[in-house]
Amino acid sequence: MNFASIPSVTTWNFAKRIQFDQVSMNQQGFLKHLLQKPVANLRKPYGSSIQEIRRYASFIGTSNQKDLLTDPSGSRRFICIEVTAPININVTINYRQLYAQAMEAITKGERYWFDDTDEAILKESNREFEQISPLEQLFHCYFRSPEEGEMGEWMTSMEIIEYLQGKSKTISLSNSSISTFGRILKKNQIESKRTKRGMQYEVMMLNK
């Protein structure tokens, strides 16, 4: 919840609930972009021009599937919660008091944003909700990170991809999946360095 965008208790717009299953991979990128903007430049339905609209609402999505998030760099703008029991709907939430407490905390200087530690915790907790692409799954079949004291082999992302293609003829790679492969390696905390040959990654080949 972005408390910074709350102008007052009375002008708060309630959260928008969406069916997350209906959000495509491309739309997730736009949604992530929209979530971080205090002001959005949009054309309203049936509108003739683009307007600058302040964002007052947060977004809530539901899904019957668990593997939802598709960002190969990590999803730190979503807070995923798995519901494991029936929700008690017989409780009345005092929203006015809740928002008043939030405004009071902000007025007193309470931090309302995530710091680096918070983001690391959030990304780690979101891992179980991420989609694992076929290319990433194939990578884990043939490579791993070097353990402490081990010397890995430094390879570019294209060298790794060419090796994987040689091992599996069934996987089809699009230009977009190739361009995001470096982010997949970074998400898996593969050590990297920039060289004259481009970005290289330290990996250990599995004996297969």
* Count of domains: 2
The shape, in one word, is elongated
**Structural classification:** alpha+beta
Radius of gyration: 22 Å
Share of residues in strands: 15-25%
Count, helices: 7
Q: Can you give the helix content as a percent range?
A: 25-40%
Would you report the number of β strands?
A: 8
Give the H and E element order.
Answer: EHEEEHHHEEHHHEE
| Biggest sheet character | 4 strands, antiparallel
Can you tell me the residue ranges where pLDDT is under 50 for at least 5 consecutive residues? 1-17
Kindly state the mean pLDDT as a whole number?
79
Termini separation (Å)? 47 Å
Pfam families: DUF3874 (PF12990), VapE-like_dom (PF05272)
Domain DUF3874: 133-203
Domain Virulence-associated protein E-like: 22-130
InterPro entries: DUF3874, VapE-like_dom
Quick overview of this protein structure:
The chain has 208 residues and is α+β, with helices and mostly antiparallel strands. The chain contains seven helices and eight strands, in the order βαβββαααββαααββ.
Which structural traits does this protein have?
32% helix; four-stranded antiparallel beta sheet; 8 strands; 2 domains; Arc Repressor Mutant, subunit A; two-stranded parallel ribbon; single chain; disordered N terminus; VapE-like_dom; DUF3874; 208 residues; alpha+beta
Can you walk me through this structure?
The termini are far apart. It contains seven helices and eight strands. 10% of the residues are buried. It has 208 residues and is an alpha+beta fold. Strands 5, 6, 7 and 8 form a four-stranded antiparallel beta sheet that branches. Residues 133-203 form the DUF3874 domain. Residues 22-130 form the Virulence-associated protein E-like domain. Pfam families: DUF3874 (PF12990), VapE-like_dom (PF05272).
